[in-house]
Amino acid sequence: MKKMLITIIVIVFIIGIVLALITMISARKSDEVDNDEGNLVEYVTVNMTTESTEEKTEEVIFSPAEDTFQRVDTNNTTTTDEATDNSGASSDSSSPDKYTVNQNTEDTKAPVFLINSKNVNVNKGTPFDVHSYIGYADDVDRDVELIMDGSVNTAETGTYHVTITLKDDAGHTTSSDMTVNVNEGSAPPPEDDGPSTRPGTESFESFDSEYRKAGTQLGLDVSRWQGSIDFNKVKAEGCDFVILRIGGYDDNEFYTDRCYQEYLQGAKAAGLKVGVYWHAEDSTPEEARASVKYMLDVLDGEKLDFPIAYDWEDFLGFEDYKMNLQDINDCFEVFADEVEAAGYEACLYSSLNFLETVWTNTRNHKVWLAHYTSQTDYTGSYYMWQHTSSGKIDGVNCAVDFNVLYE
Asked: Is 36 contained in some domain?
């Protein structure tokens, strides 16, 4: 009798263990527990498209407690991205300022016109392409639909009225009217690849008299369009600094400004403070990283007196880049991260219009404002103001940009 009782107890114990194991195995099929922290790890499958348009599948693991995404691709390699809060700063305490590209957003806004020409002139007999006169984007949709109501007959002179409507995937719309004037005329001459011949109209002397105050410095920004520059004469005029175009990314190719090295040596030899700007046309974070790598190779460790400026301004026909507004902001933030990782500071160059319609600058990088007026009414923060593109100074043979730096 005693042996039978012991046998029954053992059987019940074994059954209990088996039931517990079955329960644990079943639970692990839907959720996996992080052994270190005990955090639930959720699995999400997403489709990614490579540059070759070949579709692949990634498994994205999100850990709510650690606030990180872990991606496992088809090659079984794993990378980790920190999740981003609304400020754009990483939640990783070891790298609080590192930016992470936004994972997804809800489309809540209508598309916007970035450039919107209301009245345009077209020569008789030449094709009319509305994209040559506008630029537009959406907060989420990368392929906004354009609907043009009305027609333009360039075979006949006259005035034509069209209405342009932008529509995103969420159904939001924005409309604008355009007047198209078809005139007798001839095609403009081809652009000259040489230095600019446009004369300046505002003398540096008058610029200095009007804008030099306590806590300010005055300077120029130049590129190869200014041609040969005598920086000693520029310095003698009272100029404090010069910002040089180091190069850029154009039509999927990197380039170094043909005058950069000459300008760099001449400006430093004259005792001017020196900074650089990068002419950007990247459309992905990968292109932004590659841009910085190329730029740093050209810079070759050169000491600079100002932040490296990111100059993205190809907003006419912006829709051709197949970007949304988040994408272009991601490109700048990634550019800034890469620049700062190399020991430099980054800043954003832009006009007042695009600072108000395109750029979010969520991490408050310094801003170089372009606004051609006697006194800007921009209400945001900026450390330097590009006051005019029609400056005239001894040592430069054509019009040049004048800037006010606020110390």
From this structure: no
Could you please report the per-residue DSSP string of 255-294? EE-TTHHHHHHHHHHTT-EEEEEEEE---SHHHHHHHHHH
Q: Write down the pLDDT at residue 276.
A: 99
Mean pLDDT calculated for residue range 273-296: 98
Predicted TM-score (pTM) of the model is 0.75
Question: Quick one: residue 97, left, alpha or beta (phi over 0 = left, psi -120 to 50 = alpha)?
Answer: alpha
The answer to whether residue 178 scores a pLDDT higher than 80 is yes
Q: Is the pLDDT of residue 405 over 50?
A: yes
Tokens 């950069």, residue located: 260
Q: In sequence order, what are the residues at sequence separation of 6 or more whose Cβ sits closer than 8 angstroms to the Cβ of residue 265?
A: none
Share of the chain above pLDDT 70, in %: 75
Report how far residue 168's alpha carbon sits from residue 142's, in angstroms, rounded to the nearest whole number: 9
Residue of 290, 354, 347 whose CA lies nearest to 325: 354
168 shares its domain with 219: no
Query: Could you count the other beta carbons within 10 Å of the beta carbon of residue 218?
Result: 20
The Cα 67–Cα 46 span in angstroms is 18
- Give the per-residue pLDDT at 90: 33
Range of the domain at 123: 112-183
Q: Looking at the structure, do residues 175 and 215 belong to the same domain, yes or no?
A: no
